[in-house]
Design a protein that fits this description.
11 helices, 271 residues, Rossmann fold, 2 domains, Pantoate--beta-alanine Ligase, Chain: A,domain 2, binds adenosine monophosphate, alpha/beta, 5-stranded parallel sheet, globular
Length: 271
């Protein structure tokens, strides 16, 4: 790794880092391609991080498709693949010595429904940036709250890395690409489109004033389609403050998380 970083440094080439958990799809690859287009030395990591899973079954069932991943990365022109083991990432064990003061961000939405998840995310990204002190960190808007959390962690730790947020890539029917989509059977895959339809419904129906009926209609749409909904929320896109009322001016984002069977899907849309 150091050799690659030194070579890039010698050429004054910037480094772009794309952390992933593998089972790569075109959404991940779009991050690599964006970094590549910007002329960076592109480093991708694949590491299914045990400390960010609050559900042991989700961790055990997480898809692993390493040969296909390598093939896609080679085709996209990725320069370096970092494929660490658990002991390489956590030589002193999984317990973190650092607590990240994420404040409000950790108390809502994914933070509320997945206790400890964002501490695990910060732990792994902090550690990865220790090994790969990249100039730019490429993240997907698909994980909207995660982008905010990582930005906060980078600020708290005083790291020199700049975040680049890339748009969510979707399947032709609108479903946000996700490694977990592989775990949907045919029936669930057909139903899954309802997540993006619901976000579109919010976007097209949004009016200044009370938002509670819009939110409860959206939850009903998901539940009627067979989802078990964790949340559908509308929030301030800058702060993630949850909104029950819209002044017609504040930039908003709609976010949702819902289960189809035992597969949990998340998505969001700027309104
Ligand atoms: P993951 O492997 O799920 O941890 O994702 C690795 C990175 O890819 C994260 O920054 C995600 O936000 C991003 N990503 C995941 N799905 C998509 C997508 N459909 N479009 C764009 N980026 C994505």
């Amino acid at each position: 790794m150091n050799l690659f970083l030194q070579k890039a440094g010698a050429k004054q080439q910037k480094t772009g880092f794309v952390p992933t958990m593998g089972a790569l799809h075109p959404g991940h690859i779009s991050l690599v391609e964006t970094a590549k287009q910007r002329g960076h030395l592109v480093i991708c990591s694949i590491f299914v991080n045990p400390t960010q899973f609050n559900d042991a079954k989700d961790f055990q069932n997480y898809p692993i498709t390493i040969e296909s991943d390598i093939d896609q990365l080679e085709k996209a022109g990725c320069d370096v693949l970092f494929l660490p083991s658990v002991s390489e990432m956590y030589p002193n064990g999984l317990a973190s010595k650092t607590h990240y003061e994420l404040g409000y961000l950790e108390t809502v939405l994914e933070g509320k429904y997945r206790p400890g998840h964002f501490q695990g995310v910060c732990q792994v990204v902090h550690r990865l940036l220790g090994i790969i002190p990249a100039d730019f960190l490429y993240l997907g808007q698909k994980d909207f709250q995660q982008c905010m959390v990582i930005k906060k962690m980078i600020g708290l730790q005083g790291l020199k890395t700049t975040i680049v947020i890339c748009p969510t890539l979707r399947e032709p029917d609108g479903l946000a690409m996700s490694s977990r989509n592989m775990r949907l059977d045919e029936k669930a895959r057909t139903r899954a489109v309802e997540i993006s339809s619901t976000l579109n419904y919010i976007k097209t129906s949004l009016q200044p004033g009370d938002l509670s009926i819009l939110k409860s209609n959206a939850i009903k749409k998901l539940n009627d389609a067979g989802f078990k909904t964790d949340y559908v929320e509308i929030a301030d896109a800058e702060t993630l403050a949850l909104k029950d009322h819209w002044d017609g001016k504040t930039k908003l984002v709609a976010l949702c998380a819902a289960f189809l069977g035992d597969v949990r899907l998340i998505d969001n849309m700027l309104l």
